[in-house]
Amino acid sequence: MDLRGLVLLVAILIVEVVTAANGNLVFSVERRKTTLTAIKAHDARRRGRFLSAVDLNLGGNGIPTENGLYYTKLGLGSPPKDYYVQVDTGSDILWVNCVECLRCPKKSDISGIDLTLYDPKGSSTSKLVSCEEDFCFSTYDGPLPGCGSGKPCPYNIGYGDGSATSGYYVKDYLTFNRVNGNLHTVPQNSSIIFGCGNVQSGMLGTSSDEALDGILGFGQANSSVLSQLAASGKVKRVFSHCLDNIRGGGIFAIGEVVEPKVSTTPLVPKMSHYNVVLKNIEVDSDILQLPSDIFDSGNGKGTVIDSGTTLAYLPGIVYDELISKVLARQPGMKLYLVDQQFSCFQYVGNVDHGFPVVKLHFEDSLTLTVHPHDYLFKYKDGANWWCIGWQKNVVQSKNGKDMTLLGDLVLSNKLVIYDLESMAIGWTDYNCSSSIKVKDEAGVVHTVGAHNLSSASAILIGRILTFFLLLTAMLNS
Hints:
The protein is of the alpha+beta class. It has 2 domains: 23-255 and 435-469, Cathepsin D, subunit A, domain 1; 257-428, Acid Proteases (Cathepsin D, subunit A, domain 1), CATH 2.40.70.10. The chain contains 8 helices and 31 strands. A 6-stranded mixed β-barrel has the order 2-3-9-4-8-7. Strand 19 (336-338) and strand 20 form a beta hairpin. The longest helix has 19 residues, at 3-21. 46% of the residues are buried. Keywords: Aspartyl protease, Glycoprotein, Hydrolase, Membrane, Protease, Signal, Transmembrane, Transmembrane helix. One of its GO terms (molecular function) is aspartic-type endopeptidase activity.
């Protein structure tokens, strides 16, 4: 190859790498590396949010030793600026920190993240959402006391761990990439309403640990970005994710999945989160003997599917019975307490040969199969120490101690579909490094592939999954 041809080839390769690193394939969702203690603290905060959500009328990852929260980069405003936000199926609004924010974090401990404050005055398309607008009425189920004519519609979210965020709603452009062909996207924007945070407290405040610009809620409420896009006729309220904790990367798409076929179970109606009916748990072909009402929904009980939680949390009586069965094949095995909270042990060999498969059986005969390599994780690379990912749900308040919360521990390496049109959720074991076929509003089927951009830039760490918004061909603001 002559010099000219070599230069051209190198130039093409550079363009491809830079394009990938800059997120041209929609939202790149990264998974932060963290410690075991930080994982439990992160999950504890999430459980606190679940427990306080009902009172506040609110809606509503992976290998534990390597990954914490999921976050993505999106554009807001005109001209668009980049913001890093946590992807959260357990909350219902998109909010970002704003320029007038008090106690907002100034920096993030997450490598490669530069925090940005949203400035309504710096965007030519930003508008305040007033108290008399329909969005404000519907969010609060009627007029909000003290919210008079012309005043900005406020938001205030308090979490069970004492953290809180408050501010006001604004309307502006959200910029993302729309899938318009097989493995191809084009930039697109749409006007949406989101929270402009001006007061943060607790872990959302000045702490740089896990600090991001905000949270992108994918809950069921009308205030979520998904619901807003659906209300404007641009999408259906259907999304899916496939998280690859083996190779890294994965898929997160909005749209009807037509391939592979996935069986579903009904979502429990009138619940703030993605609640399902868990019937029983099977270990080594034996059904656990548990109280008949242990998995009933309501009154702080029930089973919640949440991709933002790292581990899996069970009521105490369920946890004790499950662990007893899981360890039955290894009599005399000694357990050690690591970081004062994880049960770990030494084991040489293939864990899939030494420990049983756990099957969770749901309504309508849907089964979630959890293999030993899913619920057991290496404490240190290259060592023979393994830890148990199942956790006992210990909370401070009585409300919620009997809740079953299923996170990434059981959801990884599975295609999970949330169909709010049919009020159902489903999953199937899947190679998350491959692709799926999704149908848009025009009935056109597109191939959506997995992406792992972790090698594309030195500042991108952990595992990255591409977050696809599959929208119709024409989007009107």
